[in-house]
Amino acid sequence: MPSAPWSTVQLAEFLEVFELLEMLDGVNMTRIAVDRVAAALDAEVVALLIDETVVRCLGFPADAVPVKLLRNAAEVRFSILDVPGIGEVHSLSAAVSTAGCTMVVLRAGNAFDKEEETLVRSMARALGLAMTATDRLTESRMLAERLAERQYLSDRLAQIQKSISHRAPLQEVMDSITQGAAELLSADVVGLRVVGLGEGADAIASLAGYPGEGLAHFRSIPLDQGFSGRAFTEGVLVSTKDFPADAAALGSAPEAFIEAVMAAPVHHDGHIVGVINVASREVGRIFTPPEEEILLRLADHASLAVTDAAAIHALRNSLEGERFKASHDALTALPNRTTVLEMIEYELDHSARGVPLSVLYIDVDRFKLLNDMYGHPFGDRVLIEVASRLRSAVREEDLVGRLAGDEFVVVAPGISAEDAEALAQRVTHQMTQPLVIDGRGTHLSVSVGVAESAAGLTSEELLGNADVAMYRAKTSGRDCVVCYDVQMRDEMFKRADLEQEISLGLKAGEFVPFFQPSMNLETGKVHSLEALVRWNHPTRGLLAPDAFLELAEETGLIVEIDKSVLDESCRQLAGWTRLNPDLTISVNLSVRHFAHPEIVDFVAETLAKYRLHGSRLWLEITESMVMANDAMTLEILRSLRSLGVRFMVDDFGTGYSSLVYLKRYPIGALKIDREFVDGLGSDLEDEAIVTAIIRLADALGHEVIAEGVETAAQQEWLVQSGCIYAQGFLFSKAVSADALEVLLSTAVTVENGFL
Fold this sequence. Notes:
By secondary structure, this protein is of the alpha+beta class. Helix content is 47%, strand content 21%. It has four domains: 144 residues, GAF domain (Beta-Lactamase, 2-Layer Sandwich); 163 residues, GAF domain (Beta-Lactamase, 2-Layer Sandwich); 158 residues, Reverse transcriptase/Diguanylate cyclase domain (Alpha-Beta Plaits, 2-Layer Sandwich); 237 residues, TIM Barrel (Alpha-Beta Barrel). The protein has 27 helices and 26 strands. It has an eight-stranded mixed beta barrel with strand order 18-19-21-22-23-24-25-26, surrounded by five helices. It has a five-stranded antiparallel sheet with strand order 2-1-5-4-3, sandwiched between helices. Strand 16, helix 16 and strand 17 form a beta-alpha-beta unit. Helix 1 runs parallel beside helix 4, helix 4 packs across helix 25 and helix 12 crosses helix 16.
């Protein structure tokens, strides 16, 4: 077997460095990189420049780096320079990244040849990707350190939030808040009072750090008096480092030995109903801005507890026993659909008297996929977090409810659709904050529909309008807000009709595979086939995937479509064995299959049914599937591989991924994305990337197939670069099974084509 080209070996060794990426910082990475480049090219000088600043240089003493000379060399790809102490050298530069980083290589003696140029550009690009990954890793570590510093605060606030969410008695929640404030702020005395709630909750009080009969004395002090009274009357946080002087200035008697005080208001229903204050006996104590922020957050929790307790109290007056339980969602403790509709109906009565009402309909983007990939317990944790974030994003007077599944609603009285849209934007922003569950980082986003009340609307109709707007947000790309318009309802009906048509089409066998061949550019003959789904619609004719695939993926119908295509493709392949016994076929699989192990049994049964060896079937997967790094995904891939089935990575190079998965997963082939193929023969960067992919695949023993080949120039470039398999319109479009059989029966080659 011939040995790999010199440049391929050098590039492979260079890439091995970055397998240790997590153990390297940016400084060591660039040092090792320039050392490896210098060794590979026998160069006297290797330097890295960012925005004309030399950040790493091998070959010159640190105090004698010729910066201007290196800058000049970085501006051109090739040059010949006269370097003091070295003499005449050949210069070669390559872009490391799009952030202005350039690699410069200087060598005396022989000029750089084409293979060396390609190697340098590939090394530079690999270094750029690794530096980007390292920067992200560093940012993640810094974030982790900051999170660790605030973990205690988060845990304490979470305990308080949990007591609120679990509907603990208000007095118990308030005691938790004062104890938490004492611990978090190192305070000697913490007091919290709430008044004016009525019906037995007129004077909730909690005190930490005050012995004896202090609570009775604390209750007797008017809330609007003294230094802390300013927080109650002015509605702002107040703080002092000289409490005796400030208290005397306000005409009140200072508490013994208290030196520093700060206080914040507690709100309910738009009014100030209480104050939380903390005090320190430490001389010279000054409460810092972060400590003020902690107190404000504790005050917010107290406000939330008061609002929640008041709402519960009001509901319990109208609902008894089991009816109360039936009115709330068991998972999130939010009002359910019935209660939400009752609240909307109540608010619509006010709307009829000129008070506006808006409703936000919120759906978690791609929640079904999360649920399928990571399981229902994980999905439940996500829903609980969504409920918590909704509560923190909306106003105190707004009602948050859960309708069903991943659908939530906010009833926002007193605001128009325009103001409700701003509220919805706050909701979407809150949802995109980082979320980690059981060590797994998850990106959340929501689609929000907004609808405003109008004369004659019922609660069901208003909620339905918001639902329609939410579906428009979904179809507009998700993670956005859309306000209702009457024309949207027709579009939603069309979408619902399409979903029904897809379901009926599956039962009627309307989804069929078309087949696009990939060609062996050396022999000029068909190498393999790719099955591409088409919908033979009874009234609209033959439909391409973009007419139905997104909705099928969203609804989960894609699973049955994939199975139908896989079964029919294998049936056809078995029939074509007489024409070409070595012919193989590739079928695309949705990520949804990798959440359910039964796909393994289905593939095994299909192969057995048509008496096909597993090696004749390729399954095309995406980088995002394997980068999920999920144990179930890996197990499914390995089980399928044990059947002889092989895997190819579709659109290779377009995902944000690490090359580590190429050795971790049973990958057998890489498909070069058409985005890179388009530039072959005209774009040096595309050519460098494709060259690197070809050599990487060759070094790993993988097949490589170029997608989207449309010109003879692209074909010629691929042949000269060692890529022997290609598919695209230059050879054939996707054709029906009958048309393909005719073509397979004739002497079809690259020269005469299929078109």
